[in-house]
Amino acid sequence: MLRNMVTSLLQHERIETTLPKAKEARRMAERIITLGKKGGVHNARLAQRDVKSREVLSKVFGELKDRYAKRSGGYTRILKGHFRKGDGAGVAVLELVDRPEESEPVPGAEAEGE
Fold first, then answer.
1. What letter would DSSP give residue 106?
2. Whole-angstrom Cα distance, residue 34 to residue 10?
3. CB 53 within 8 A of CB 11
4. How far from the centroid of its chain's Cα atoms is residue 53's Cα?
5. Is the pTM of the predicted complex or chain greater than 0.85?
6. What's the CA gap between 38 and 41, in Å, rounded?
7. Pairing relation of β-strands 14-18 and 76-83?
8. pLDDT higher than 60, residue 1
9. Going along 42-99, which residue ranges are E strands?
10. 54-63 per-residue burial string, b: 16 or more CB within 10 A, e: under 16
């Protein structure tokens, strides 16, 4: 489960999950990004143990390697959110720092202008 969460985080650069899962996924994601920064075949194979998607691996060893070249750690952030209605679990957003802002329209923004 954590491998899938980390793969989704590296692919989409932002996921929403419970707080304990976010804390564990953060540890794995930071380690994989560090392996990507180091580069090399050995580190790629170590990262491949956790990330099964070739597209995500190429992103880690390409785009993310360049983005975090000058950063010495702390590639992710956890933002605490609301509590889930069904079981009351604390929900958190786990995201990569320094990610490019997407130009997604805010839901309901066009209704406010009318």
1. P
2. 13
3. yes
4. 14
5. no
6. 10
7. unpaired
8. yes
9. 76-83, 90-96
10. eebbebbbee
